[in-house]
Design a protein that fits this description.
With about 50 residues, this protein is mainly α. It is built from two helices and no strands. The chain starts with a helix and ends with a helix.
């Protein structure tokens, strides 16, 4: 039980480090206007493909 708790804490900490690295990367090199546009187009297409 203790081992499972320690492993869970380690997983959460690893995810936090990865999240921080992603945020730091985007802070150092933000997406270009073209990348922002491509992301929005992709999102719009994905929403339209949903079978609602």
């Amino acid at each position: 039980m203790v081992r499972a708790g320690i492993e869970a804490i380690a997983r959460v900490e690893q995810e936090r480090r990865i999240d921080r690295a992603i945020v730091d990367g985007y802070s150092r090199l933000p997406p270009t206007e073209a990348e922002d546009h491509a992301a929005l187009v992709s999102l719009s297409e994905a929403i339209l493909e949903e079978p609602w």
